[in-house]
Write a structure and sequence with these properties.
Length: 234
C-alpha cells in the first residue's frame, strides 16, 4: 500500500502483511490489537442478567446449572436485584457473583459484554422485570443490563426474557410485542404440571431446562413430555 502526503506525492510503500494489527496504515502509526479483547473461549459463553423482579431463585439456579454444564457465565444484576435476592433466596450478592465466571456492576459500561465484538451465545435475563423489558423495548441502554441486552439484539444473538409479572395491561403487552419483533424471546416462568413436580426446586429446574433448550444446552431434565401412556388412551 502506498502512503501519500497532503499533496498526493508518494511518501512510503507499506505491505499490509508486514505487521499484525489493523489493515489500515497511517503515517508514523500502526494500529495494534485491543488488549482488552480476550482470546476466543473454548467454552460456550452466555450472559446472565438478574433484575429486581420476584423470582430471584431462577437466576441463582440458572448460574448453578450453567456451571455444571461447563458454560462460561458473565453476570450482571440490576440495582434492585440484591434486595430481592436477600429477601427471597437469603443469599448475599457476593455469594451469587461467586457462581459466575465474571460479574459486572450496572455502571460498568466499559465491560466486555457492552460491546458486540465480545462474542457470546446470547443472554438470559432471569427473572426479567417489566421495567427492564420496557427499557430494552425502548432501545434505551440505561445501565449495563439493558446495554448488554441491546448488544445481543443488534448482533442478532439470542435474548431470552423470563418475564415475571401478572396480570398484564396493554402497555406490558405492547412492550412484549416490541421486544419480540426486535428478536427477543419472551419465556415466562410458567410451571409444567404435566411433569408432575413434587417440589418447588423441580418446577424451577424444569422451566430453566426448557430455556436452556433454546441455546442447545443439555441438562438432565426429568419430566419431558413423551405422550400419554394409559390404558384409557390405548
Amino acid at each position: 500500500m502506498t502512503i501519500l502526503d497532503m499533496s498526493g506525492a508518494a511518501l512510503e510503500t507499506v505491505s499490509l502483511n508486514s505487521y499484525s494489527g489493523s489493515p489500515v496504515a497511517f503515517l508514523d502509526h500502526v494500529a495494534s490489537p485491543d488488549a482488552r479483547l480476550e482470546k476466543p473461549s473454548a467454552k460456550q459463553r452466555l450472559i446472565v442478567g438478574i433484575s429486581g423482579a420476584s423470582g430471584a431463585v431462577y437466576g441463582v439456579r440458572l448460574l448453578e446449572l450453567l456451571r455444571a454444564a461447563g458454560v462460561e457465565t458473565h453476570l450482571i444484576m440490576s440495582n434492585a436485584a440484591g434486595i430481592t435476592l436477600a429477601h427471597e433466596v437469603g443469599k448475599p450478592l457476593s455469594a451469587v457473583r461467586a457462581l459466575a465466571d465474571r460479574s459486572y456492576g450496572q455502571k460498568d459500561l466499559s465491560a466486555p459484554i457492552a460491546s458486540g465484538s465480545f462474542r457470546t451465545a446470547g443472554m438470559i435475563i432471569a427473572p426479567c422485570s417489566v421495567r427492564t423489558m420496557s427499557g430494552i423495548a425502548a432501545g434505551g441502554a440505561e445501565g449495563l443490563l439493558a446495554r448488554a441486552a441491546d448488544v445481543v439484539l443488534k448482533e442478532r444473538r439470542r435474548l431470552v426474557l423470563l418475564l415475571r409479572e401478572t396480570p398484564l395491561h396493554l402497555g406490558h403487552l405492547r412492550a412484549m410485542t416490541t421486544v419480540t419483533e426486535m428478536g427477543a424471546i419472551i419465556a415466562p416462568p410458567v410451571p409444567a404440571f404435566y411433569a408432575k413436580p413434587t417440589s418447588l426446586e423441580q418446577m424451577v429446574d424444569y422451566t430453566l431446562g426448557r430455556v436452556l433448550d433454546l441455546f442447545d444446552i443439555e441438562i438432565d431434565l426429568a419430566g419431558r413430555w413423551n405422550g400419554l401412556r394409559s390404558a384409557v388412551m390405548e
